[in-house]
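Quick one, tokens below:
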């Protein structure tokens, strides 16, 4: 049975705040010892934790998290997710078993609540059983990875993530239920939370004495974070929510939600996390070169975020956002040239902020009429009577 109303509850937002620690830990995992392996590990951990969050976003469309025993199970899941987040720095070393146990508890609580919610809904029960199978395999592979190391360990993590996230493709999308407005708002909230982590990274990185360079970097960091917010919430979020709401209930709506939100929001969140790495390293050493890996994290993270938007638009309206695709290509092309064109990390951040600001200005002028229609006419159509 679908829950009544489309508003995100306070307990859901509270649950989402625990995810902030996961983002912070993944960012710190890269920033502490910048390397390509650190980036890969952080993205694998973030992917696993993202998929657990996604499961609860679907769950709270069919159960009210603030009612009865569900509230207690949600708190238990939050505690397990918190432990898993604390284990992130050692998830590939001494804390690997504890991470797998905590993650398994998060997913077990999720499946148990879904089983209870589907007791009178056979199609939903079928989907939940399939999800439970792929979840069990994924958790089992993480346990196996805890007793390995090196390339084999990374491979088992990658396989666990692939099987867990790929499970919904194997048993279909017909049985799931969701409340469109609530589902879209929940994902918008997680984007804001991720952007909040980028702001926190500015403060965490400002270890040097506050001076003109650090102040300038902080301002540019806010410009970057604000630009990332604008690119999503100005038009994209409105169009996507309306597309999801207008889709026929059942398989078509569920597949849009799965692809557009569960899958394609991950590169957006991952991109923001990578940008946060670059912001943290920049604020710590504004006059020094950023370095290849931190530069790749910041510029590549921005590109990943924009590519997520390109794929998001293609999935929803089947058209290509050429200007965002071009901007992503420029950001990627700048990575190997960063040391030559921007000898100081502050300069790299300035170039990044200028490119995002230029993209927004272009879209604001070029698509002014369409933007006005989306933000006002379509918004009025979607507003409740």
């Amino acid at each position: 049975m679908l829950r009544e109303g489309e508003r995100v509850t306070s307990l859901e937002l509270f649950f989402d705040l625990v995810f902030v620690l996961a983002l912070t830990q993944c960012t710190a995992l890269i920033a502490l010892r910048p390397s390509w392996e650190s980036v890969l590990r952080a993205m694998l951990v973030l992917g696993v934790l993202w998929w657990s969050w996604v499961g609860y976003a679907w769950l709270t469309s069919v159960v009210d998290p603030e009612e009865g025993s569900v509230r207690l199970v949600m708190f238990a899941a939050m505690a397990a997710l918190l432990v898993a987040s604390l284990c992130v720095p050692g998830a590939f070393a001494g804390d690997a078993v504890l991470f797998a146990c905590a993650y398994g508890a998060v997913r077990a609580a999720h499946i148990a609540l879904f089983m209870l919610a589907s007791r009178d809904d056979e199609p939903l029960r079928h989907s939940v059983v399939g999800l439970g199978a792929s979840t069990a395999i994924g958790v089992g592979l993480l346990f196996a990875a805890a007793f390995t190391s090196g390339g084999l360990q990374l491979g088992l993590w990658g396989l666990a993530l692939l099987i867990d996230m790929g499970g919904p493709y194997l048993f279909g999308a017909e049985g799931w239920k969701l409340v469109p407005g609530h589902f879209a708002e929940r994902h918008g909230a997680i984007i804001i939370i991720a952007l909040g982590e980028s702001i926190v990274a500015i403060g965490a990185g400002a270890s040097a004495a506050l001076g003109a360079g650090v102040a300038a970097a902080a301002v540019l960091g806010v410009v970057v974070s604000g630009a990332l917010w604008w690119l999503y919430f100005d038009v994209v979020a409105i169009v996507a929510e309306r597309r999801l709401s207008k889709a026929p209930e059942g398989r078509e709506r569920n597949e849009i939600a799965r692809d557009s939100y569960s899958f394609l929001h991950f590169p957006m969140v991952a991109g923001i996390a990578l940008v946060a790495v670059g912001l943290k390293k920049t604020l710590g050493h504004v006059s020094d070169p950023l370095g290849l890996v931190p530069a790749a994290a910041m510029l590549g993270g921005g590109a990943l975020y924009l590519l997520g938007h390109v794929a998001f638009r293609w999935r929803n309206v089947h058209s290509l956002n050429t200007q965002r695709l071009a901007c992503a290509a420029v950001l990627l092309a700048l990575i190997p040239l960063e040391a030559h064109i921007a000898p100081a990390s502050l300069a790299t951040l300035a170039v990044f902020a200028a490119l995002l600001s230029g993209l927004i200005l272009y879209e604001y002028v070029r698509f002014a009429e369409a933007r006005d229609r989306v933000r006002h006419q379509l918004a009025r159509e979607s507003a409740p009577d």
